[in-house]
Structure formats: structure tokens, C-alpha cells
Specification:
By secondary structure, this protein is of the alpha/beta class. Helices cover 33% and strands 25% of the residues. The chain has nine helices and 15 strands.
Length: 314
């Protein structure tokens, strides 16, 4: 049974907004583009595996969660988590294609692409075992002795594991069902009522990490962000306010609510609150009254009064 369904990364959507508002010559532009590609590949791999898990028909009670963020000694994010009578299962998803070799001393994953390009990545084995340790510690904090196990799952058919590791279970997508079915060869250690209690605990303690505002996350000066209202039709930044509507010089769109997405962009990129002055500067408005009207009609929470007034998201 699916408890927490697959969802796309909000962080990814925010990074897309960020690169649209960064000059291409910005020193961090290429780094963020690379992170977008990596995050997209990871999200796509998780979606593939989650769709595979939706087909599950197991002979025991189970719950499935996508993207669980918990805090113990540090914050840790689990790609896919399953609660079963035989223990808790962590699935660490990788969407890396080509010939793959697990190496030790130092621990790393070596990728050789079909064109001969070689890349190295942090070892998924180290990642998985760290998450198993942290999740076990998390349960012990609540006086729970819960077996925690896990597997590394490669989502792509174009992944070929040439050299494996004996320190973790490594699976292809088509092996997940058999791996989970084989759990029933062990003796159950968790009752159905305990599984329900664990479900409620994880839902309660799941606390997504906030990357926002992204300028602070990436150490970017907020003044480097390109300002103006982005056209919802063609994407051009710099719509003009004409009476009660926004006008796009690029595609000639007229839209009375075009500022709404750009206002959200401000919160994702620049700050967790906005003032009248900041609103005028970001949306390129000349009128204080116009900025006040927009802020009051944007479903925000008003804090303070007069010059100390600021607005935050609900």
C-alpha cells in the first residue's frame, strides 16, 4: 500500500527558475546546470522504480513511502522506504548508465560510458549503509528495535554492473519483486499493529529539508538575480505594467495576474519574506501603492505595521 506517493522535486523546479534568472556568464551558472541534470536523472530513476513498486502484490502487509526526510545525528533523505513484517527496507535508487564498477579503498563507483568517458561517483554502498545506520538510530531514539535492511537499485536498462560489492545488496529494476517476496523466508519481527505505529511515526517525523531561498543555498548574491515579471506564455522576463495588466514586449501577451508566479519565484530564490520595497525592486514597479495592492491580494501573511511591514508565505 502506498502511503507517500511519488512527487517531483520542488528543489528541481526552483533550480530551473534560478538559471532563468542568472546571467549565463555567472560563475555558478554551469554548476547549477549540472546539478539540474543530475537531479532530473535521479528523479526520473525514482519515478521508474516507484511505478514498478505500484505493481507489487506481496503476500504480507507493507507500506511504501517516497522521499522520506528524517533527522537523527544529521538530516538524511531516503529515496524509497518500505515497512514490512520482516523489517524496514531502504531502496537507494541510482539512474546511472554504462559500465559500472564498485571500488573499495577508497569507496567509489566508476562509470564508463559507451563513448569511453569515465566518471567517478560517491559509493552508493557507503550511502546505503549510512542510511541504515541512521535509521536504526532514529528508531532506537523511540525505544524501537527494528531490523533495517536495504538495497541499491539501478533504474535504467542501460546500466551494467561489471564489478559488484559484497557489502550491499545490488539489484536491477526487474529484481525488486523477487527481493521483496524473498523476505518472507525470514521470521516476522514486526506485528501489523506495529507497522501501523511505524507508519504514523514516519509521517509525523518526515520533515523535508528547505533549500530555500536558493541564493543562500548556493551562496549567490541576490543582486545577481535578473529582476522583472516573467511572461507566463513565452518566458521573457521584463513585462511592463500597463494600467491593471502586465504586457509582454516579446509575445504581446496581456495578463492581469502574471506577477503571481514571479512573486513565488522571489520567495524561492531571494528571501523568505518580502517588503514593499523588495516587491517594487523585484517586479520593477514604480508605485508603492501598486506594490501594496499586489502584496495584499497575493494570499500572503502580513506581519508588522507601517515601515516594518513584511509578508511571508502561508
Amino acid at each position: 500500500m502506498i502511503i507517500k506517493n511519488y512527487s517531483k522535486s520542488v528543489h528541481l523546479e526552483a533550480m530551473d527558475l534560478l538559471v532563468r534568472r542568472l546571467p549565463p556568464k555567472h560563475p555558478l551558472y554551469s554548476k547549477i546546470i549540472m546539478e539540474i541534470h543530475t537531479t532530473k536523472a535521479g528523479d526520473f530513476g525514482e519515478e521508474i522504480i516507484f511505478n514498478e513498486l505500484k505493481k507489487l502484490q506481496l503476500p504480507y502487509k507493507y507500506y511504501i513511502f517516497h522521499r522520506v526526510m528524517l533527522r537523527r545525528e544529521r538530516t538524511f533523505e531516503i529515496d524509497i522506504l518500505l515497512l514490512t513484517p520482516y523489517g524496514v527496507v531502504i531502496l537507494e535508487i541510482k539512474n546511472i548508465i554504462g559500465e559500472l564498477e564498485f571500488k573499495e579503498n577508497p569507496s567509489q563507483l566508476i562509470q564508463t560510458r559507451i563513448n569511453g568517458e569515465i566518471n567517478n561517483y560517491p559509493s552508493p554502498v557507503t550511502q546505503l549503509n549510512k542510511y541504515i545506520f541512521l535509521l536504526s538510530k532514529f528508531f532506537s531514539e523511540y525505544n524501537l528495535s527494528i531490523p533495517v535492511m536495504g538495497a541499491i537499485v539501478f533504474a535504467s536498462r542501460k546500466s551494467f554492473v561489471k564489478t559488484t560489492s559484497d557489502k550491499a545488496t545490488i539489484l536491477y529494476k526487474n529484481e525488486i519483486h523477487a527481493y521483496l517476496r524473498n523476505l518472507q523466508h525470514h521470521s516476522p519481527t514486526i506485528t501489523n499493529s506495529q507497522i501501523d505505529s511505524l507508519k504514523n511515526l514516519i509521517l509525523k517525523k518526515n520533515s523535508p529539508f528547505s533549500y530555500f531561498p536558493l541564493t543562500k543555498h548556493f551562496f549567490i548574491d541576490a543582486n545577481d538575480i535578473i529582476r522583472g515579471v516573467a511572461c507566463p506564455k513565452c518566458g521573457q522576463i521584463g513585462m511592463k505594467k500597463i494600467k491593471k495588466k502586465w504586457y509582454c514586449p516579446g509575445c504581446h501577451l496581456l495578463d492581469s495576474k502574471a506577477h503571481k508566479d514571479s512573486l513565488l519565484t522571489y520567495f524561492l530564490l531571494c528571501n523568505n519574506y518580502i517588503t514593499n520595497k523588495a516587491c517594487r525592486e523585484f517586479l520593477l514597479l514604480n508605485s508603492r501603492d501598486e506594490a501594496k495592492r499586489i502584496l495584499l491580494n497575493s494570499d500572503l501573511i502580513k506581519i508588522g505595521d507601517k515601515k516594518a511591514t513584511k509578508y511571508v508565505m502561508k
